[in-house]
Amino acid sequence: MKRLVALVFLLVLTPALADPPALDVTVDGTVQTPLRLNAATLRALPATELTVQWPLGSHLQAGPYKGVLLMSLVAQAVTKDEAGKNSYIRHTVLVYGRDGYIAALAEGEFNPAYEGKMVILAYEVNGKPFKDGLRLVVPGDKEGGRQVHDVVRIEVR
Asked: Can you spell out the DSSP letters for 84-144?
């Protein structure tokens, strides 16, 4: 009986003692300077806070979310642009979650010269870190379908 109690205790307590997820993300693809960012480098960048909400079952999931603008990460990696007028807005950015989930954004959505949507790679919500790593937050999405959890890669095409 003691062994059973000890086993149950370990199963319940182990997730609580687990290390928080690593906040590592790469920015690569059609860029001049691929990036590998960790928690320290992400938190050293200028932070943006957003309050957005999405329906989640019978209630709304809301922020505020805190993180780094996607535009600043793409700009830091320096996109490789083709010749021609406004070629930089032809880029598509794919954001990958560790579980294989992928969301796509056109650069024109978050580039301040065009729509300028404040898309962020968030590392906390309501002042607390996420339990599942980094999260893509796309304001204006009604259902939050592009809210990628546990982001590990940002690919510019």
From this structure: STTGGGG-EEEEEETTS-EEEEEHHHH-TTTT----EEEEEETTEE-TTS-EEE-TT-SS-
